[in-house]
Amino acid sequence: MIAEAGHYALVLALGLALIQSTVPILGARWGDAALMNVARSTALAQLVFTLASFLALITLHVTSDFSVVNVFENSHSMKPLIYKITGVWGNHEGSMLLWVSILALFGGLVAAFGNNLPLSLRAHVLAVQAWVASAFYLFILMTSNPFLRIINPPLEGRDLNPVLQDPGLAVHPPMLYLGYVGFSISFSFAIAALLEGRIDAAWARWVRPWTLLAWIFLTLGIAMGSYWAYYELGWGGWWFWDPVENASLMPWLAGTALLHSAVVMEKRNALKVWTILLSILTFSLSLLGTFLVRSGVLTSVHAFASDPKRGVFILLILCIFIGGSLTLYAWRASALKQGGLFAPISREGALVLNNLFLTTACATVFVGTLYPLALEVTTGQKISVGAPFFNLTFAPLFVPLMLAVPFGPLLAWKRGDLLGAAQRLFAAGVAALVAIAVLWAWTWGGSTLAPLAIGLAVFVVAGALSDLAERTGLFRVPFGTAVRRARGLPRSSWGTVFAHAGVGIALMGIVCETTWNSEYIGSMKTNDVAHVAGYALKFDGLTQRQGPNFQEVAAQFEVSLDGKWLSTMKPSKRSFTTRGSTITEAALLTRGASQLYISLGDIAADGTIAVRIYHKPMVLLIWFGPVLMAFGGMLSLSDRRLRVGAPKPARVPRSLQPAE
């Protein structure tokens, strides 16, 4: 009965979404407050039924009910409890149910906490959100029902893909979906503004917290996915320019541009048309990512194998929402007034430059990802676009962007002083030059570009700190006064400092890992010693053990440095008999921000084993940077100016009265 109840709850959620998508629109057209308030009650009820459906699927997995197709194909009675739960979204049907649950969650949050919104705007936003939800409810019920039964249920399941049986799966997909789907609120606000023909600084204040929340989750989701691929796939890499990875990077780039554009709109009532377009494009890229993962057009460790019907259905959703929104934009955008003017050298100008580089980088990734697919469809020719293309096109766009990042916060609104900002960044420039000189001397004869890139990263971090010093008057006023000023700074200012510093720190990690990475690849017998970056790793032999649903062969390595023992590392290979597959579990030894990494290959009959040993200097900075960026976003989100919302005008038409 649990499966039937979950299915019925999903059908009821669809019915509520259809009501929510029509009745509030009619209420807004007729000026009927009662009909507009239907959006709030239906959004909350829809959330309840969708969560009930999702909890029903979790219950089926936890209890190993193999009479349900989804449980049979993706679970096993001996699987640890955590993987029974995470296995719910480790497949196409379950992940789509998680997708719509998060969509309903964001709609419910707007309904519950959007009381400061004008009533008609809230009605339109929730109606648009329901349009999206209705499409995906239909998609699940018609092509991807997770509650299908098996007439003659088997005694045991096929187990989850072994690669996905990892704690990272408990975090990565939900984080990523909270980002992907969270941008639907920005989309809904944009469409609602176009339908009403009303967009101003207050609109930007209302939409910015939702955009920021989605951006935070997407940042953490991408970082978690990168780290999961790094330690789980056994290749030692953290980013492969895989098309599915690019599918998450594109909305992140567009969302970052949207955040900065919304700031200009909120502060200066400018860039209205551009902000609306970015709101549409960001969620459109999220939908595109959903299509790429689930249509079957890509073969990737991240992609779900799907039949053509699913791909066609999602493509239809894509065409309706992207085509329809852009058509509405083309029709209504010309009627929007542009707002305040500003000089090219100003904070607004710096944010526009930021948008230019971010959107160009996004377009580069878009072309590199979709061009091979388009070429195969039109000519039948198969080509591969990999790291060389992206490194040559994407990376150069970020060099001028990184140079410009420290200047933006130091420029005044409307008209800034570039020379004055440069003078305030003098210390940051000196720190960058010192870093370049030291690294050049230390790595003499090595890479020429790496010290320059590290210097650029130091400039970004020191520039963020210079902005903080300028705001607090550090070194110009007594230290106690500077501390009091720091405590009084808006949290959004602190958030900007942390976010920009996080970008520089991530860049340091990327440059260090890719430039000074050391490796040993070979075969080892018992008592053999491998030497990597000054470390000695002695192979002590193999041991076997039985896991809950796998058999494991583990190797033991004794690690020493300069003759002193440091630690024991135990990489392993796990064989999942139900799935008939074997995966590698890498061993990691962290020293500061650097890591030793051991991955096992094939094992010979005489006990000889193929190994990959890497020393990755400062590699953890690659993920610490995004975490710091997300922390900056959280600080900004907690700023009181965003919590209280936009100020309400003294007199507004009846249709725009605040929601109750």
Describe this entry's structure for a reader.
Residues 644-658 have low confidence and may be disordered. The radius of gyration is 27 Å and the shape is globular. α13 (347-379) runs antiparallel to α14 and α17 (449-472) runs antiparallel to α19 (491-516). The longest helix is centred in the middle third of the chain and has 33 residues, at 347-379. Strands 2, 3, 4, 5, 6 and 7 form a six-stranded antiparallel sheet that branches. A four-stranded antiparallel sheet has the order 1-10-9-8. The protein has helices at 2-30, 33-36, 38-62, 69-74, 81-86, 92-113, 119-143, 168-196, 201-232, 243-268, 272-294, 308-332, 347-379, 387-404, 418-424, 426-442, 449-472, 479-488, 491-516, 621-637, 640-643, and strands at 518-524, 529-532, 535-546, 551-561, 564-569, 572-576, 581-585, 587-591, 594-603, 609-616. With 660 residues, the protein is an alpha+beta fold.
In a nutshell, what does this entry contain?
This protein is α+β, with helices and mostly antiparallel strands and 660 residues long. It is 62% helix and 11% strand. Strands 2, 3, 4, 5, 6 and 7 form a 6-stranded antiparallel sheet that branches. Strands 1-10-9-8 form a 4-stranded antiparallel sheet.
Number of helices, counting only DSSP H or I runs of 4 residues or more: 21
Percent of residues in beta strands: 5-15%
Broad structural category: alpha+beta
Number of strands: 10
Strand count, sense and barrel status of the largest sheet are: 6 strands, antiparallel
Terminal CA distance reads 39 Å
What is the radius of gyration? 27 Å
Low-confidence stretches: 644-658
Average of per-residue pLDDT values: 90
Amount of helix = 55-70%
Shape field: globular
